[in-house]
Amino acid sequence: MAAKQIAVAVSLCAAASASSATALAYSTFSDDADGWQAKNGAVDFQWLGSGGNFDGYVQAKDQSGDSLWFFSAPAKFLGNKAAAYGGTLSFDLRVITASAPLEGAYADIQLIAGDGTQLSFVGALAPASTWTAYQVSMVAGPAWRVGSVDGPAATAAQMSATLSNLSSIRIRGDFAQAGEATALDSVLLTAGPVPEPATVALWLLGLGTLLPMCRAGRSAAGR
After folding, report:
1. Angle 179-170-168 (CA atoms, 0-180°, nearest 5)?
2. Which long-range contacts (CB under 8 A, 24 or more apart) does 62-66 make?
3. What residues make up the domain containing 153?
4. pLDDT at 198
5. Looking at residue 29, what is its pLDDT?
6. Number of domains the chain is built from
7. 74 in any annotated domain
8. Which of 53, 82, 105, 130 makes an SS bond possible with 164, Cβ 3.0 to 4.6 Å?
9. How far is it, in rounded angstroms, from Cα 71 to Cα 109?
């Protein structure tokens, strides 16, 4: 790498580090599944190295039955994430199916605290066969329910307490009655204040571009 390229890479890496101050956890799936899993009835969970918005993504398939399956976040998204209140959970979904969609209200996101408290986000997500981007506000309101989708609306205190002691974050993967394959990509949990959607996309795109440059820059600088 030329000296000018090294200087540009180091400068961009520093800028990326500064801009990531609001990022609490992220998964671009560029190299692997990054610790994500599919739970509650999913089968054939796998990481694919190309075809996502940022190269790789994860995917699972539905298993016959009534269980609603989810993508389950790894440890870096869990624990004390109190700073996420007022921020967002962003992700991309894609569903490939010939089956009829599920009817009724379902939890699109579940936040589960260490004491068992569960908050359910009911946003009526309806991903298409092409990548669909979502940005969910981590602020108490009518869409966030305590327990099931029919539970009372979560208060700010309840949501803050849950985010302070997260044992699980689940993103819904089950959108059809049978046979669908659902893919997940570009997951980003941020602290408040809430960034604009375009900022989130640029941040993730920049991250995927800069990481190889940062590694190369550091390697060359250490010679």
Report:
1. 145
2. 62/173, 62/174, 62/176, 62/178, 62/179, 62/180, 62/181, 62/182, 64/178, 65/41
3. 23-196
4. 55
5. 97
6. 1
7. yes
8. 82
9. 9
Residues 6+ apart with CB under 8 A from 114: 165, 166, 167
- Other beta carbons within 10 angstroms of residue 54's beta carbon come to 18
**What is the spatial distance between Cα 167 and Cα 78, in angstroms, rounded to a whole number?**
6
The residue ranges of the chain whose pLDDT is under 50 are: 1-21, 195, 214-215, 217-223
| Domain assignment present for 64 | yes
Residue type at 181 in one-letter notation: A
Q: Up-side HSE of residue 108: CA atoms within 13 Å toward CB?
A: 20
pTM of the model: 0.77
Q: Torsion-angle region of residue 77: left (phi > 0), alpha (psi -120 to 50) or beta? A: alpha
The CA distance from 155 to 179, in Å, is 37
- Is the bond preceding residue 197 a cis peptide, omega within 30 degrees? no
**Position 17 in a domain:** no
Q: Which amino acid is at 220?
A: A
Q: What is the DSSP string of 51-91?
A: EETBEEEEEEE--SSSPPPEEE--GGG-B--GGGTTSEEEE
- The predicted pLDDT at position 201 comes to 58
Q: Is residue 169 a part of any domain in this protein? A: yes
